[in-house]
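Q: My collaborator sent me two sequences in one message, no labels, and asked for predicted structures for both. Can we handle them in order? The first one she listed is below.
A: Yes, handling them in the order given. First sequence, followed by its structure tokens:
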Amino acid sequence: MMIRNLLLTTIITSCTCLASPLLAQEQEQAQEIDATTGATKQEGVSKLANAISRLHIGGYGEVAYSRNYYSNHVSRYTDPKDEHRNDPSHGKFDIPHAVLNIGYDFGKGWSFGMEIEYEHGGTGTAYEKENEEGGEWEQEQEKGGEVELEQFWIQKSFAQWANIRAGHIVVPVGLNNSAHEPMNFFTVYRPEGENTIIPSTWHQTGVSFWGRYKKVRYEAQFLAGLNAMNFTNENWIKKGAASPLEFEPATKYGLALRGDWYATEGVRIGLSGYYGHTIGNSATNDATGVEATYRGAVEVGSLDFTIKRWNWVIRGQIDYGHLGDAEQLAYLADRRDKTSPYHHSKRVSSNAYAFGVEAGYDVFSQIAKLRGKEKLYVFGRYENYDSYASATNGVEYKYLKKQRMALGINYMPLKQIVVKAEYSKRFLRSDYNNEPSFNVGIAWQGWFL
């Protein structure tokens, strides 16, 4: 062992001695180059600084805790009073959203943006060798949640009033989609009604024309259509933008429009809508079946507003939607095939709606030492929504009509950070049990660079 160590030491020392003159020579040459090309080096530093100034990195995230004082049993709505009235409460920790935004300004009006979102902590699988199964390798799901590329676009700006964006973009239908970051709502989770019936955050591949002229901002989008295979009775068209495939089907198309009027300081009124065909927008279609005969036209209209004045923040929205040929969804081949990756709920309502309003007052605005430094909003919110608002196929799901009230606080020690707490309660029809809960969360959003 001593001989081996001695040989290793000798080899290392010899290599170092041989390399030293070469290293010294390279260092001397580098010093000479720096002395003669100082301007070139400075130019490189300037280019790097310019590139960094064009790069934008940011994001937002939320961490939440909930305690729900009602049953979470699968049959709590089919047999609510007798069996599940006094079921124990349940709680959860959650990371609803963790988002990274990256943008870059190429110059001459060209820019790029992307957004990667981890919902509920992301997802993951792993292989494990199971001793209990005789040493067999098994694949197991290690983590739930989703990982999504919510934005990936390139944009050309001609003027403030004329911009074209192409790629994967956010569809700004409704208040929640146009302002989905956690500083844009008081509740711990995103507003429940709108989040129940339409996609959130709604993102699809397409092209957008947008701009602003004086007090009006406008946007028109041409998109891949929604997929009726993913519509459900509990969430209406919410999952229609998702695809279990490696691509986004675009046999059918959709059109989204939005306009915002900034009437005066702190007051905005928005109007948005969507129209598109959804039946037949899947990977395979039956040329002689339902897909060839019906369109499944989706129409959504939304009116929303925001008021930020006199230490008040007030927000509200009304959404109403109609699904044509809703009764035909029960006959779509892939919805009836239990092996398909689509939803197999046979009944989807032809109508759905959601409206809600929230108001919060900054208490710290009345305290001189805290005014303008920190904020403490005391807020209330009311929502009313129904994802099965019409008795399609002669069936009613009465438990899907819900009202929700929430009271709570938002404490903002900094502009980019908010701590939230609320007590809320869902009010269902008298046949069912109401659903109270307590939620606490902390969220942030901002740009690092």
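Q: And the one she listed second?
A: Here it is, processed independently of the first:
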Amino acid sequence: MKKRSPKKKNRQLILAFFIGIILICNGCGRKETGQKENNEKVNTEETETNAGFEEQTGQAQEEAVAENGETEEEKAAGVQAETSSIREQQIKNTDNETLLTMKANMIYVTVPGNQEAEDAINRFFADRHASWQDTVNTYREMAEQDFGTWCAMKSEDNGEEGSSQEDGQKEAIGPGSWNSYELDRTYRVMRADEEIISIVEDDYEYTGGAHGNAVRVAYNFDVQTGKRMALEEVASDLDEIRQKSVAYLGEKLPESKVAEELFGDYANHLEDILTDSTWYLDGNGLHVICNEYIITPHSAGILDFLLPYEEVDVVKERFQLAG
């Protein structure tokens, strides 16, 4: 793996996407009519944050080596999927009030000897980052509008209808008085070998109210082609894997830790859980993700069910690993 120029180019492309998110965010928190002095202060702080982001992103591979205890030689021998540390960024207005908080990390895949597959998988996640950048812009605008509305309502409650919005902001803002928006996207590598790469994406958003919303999605890739895999490609029989997963969940759920939170008609929705976006493989078996409100309320959180290879034999033998 001495010839790294194509991979360095990929890393630079993905890094550019990620830094693009931060650069867009930096321009979001300042009002056009804000004071020049405040803007200069915000610019300085955000430049330092960007430097930290770039440095952290560039250390993704070194961090993975430290966490996994692997040497560069060991890592070079096979397929790799690495994530950078989760970093946090805040968008603030000219009054230094936080409008939007974001948490995210990056992922980079290496497939020795198969540049085409490697490029395809990394392009997929680069596109995910670009899409998330658009979402960041949308949420920033929403938060800015909602904050202005909140300030106006707060001023009215305080009997200050004649006050300007700027006056209302200065007098009404206080610790805990405004709940900023939150938008997170993080990745975890569940399996990466010569047969399959399984990666889980966790998304979270909060735009006010009693609680936020979370969703988990799994992405599985064919290491030979770099294409995203459907359930039928790993199942020994598609109908059988659906039937056995429903039967297995029906047996285990009544005695699980979420038994008391199950909806009354949960049994009627077990077949809705397993889709092409809610499964992944690891060393122990087939995992099935169950997002909120399918069989349990928000309080139960996102559920992850393991169907062990040795107990539920529905995965093609070449994808099975010893637990």
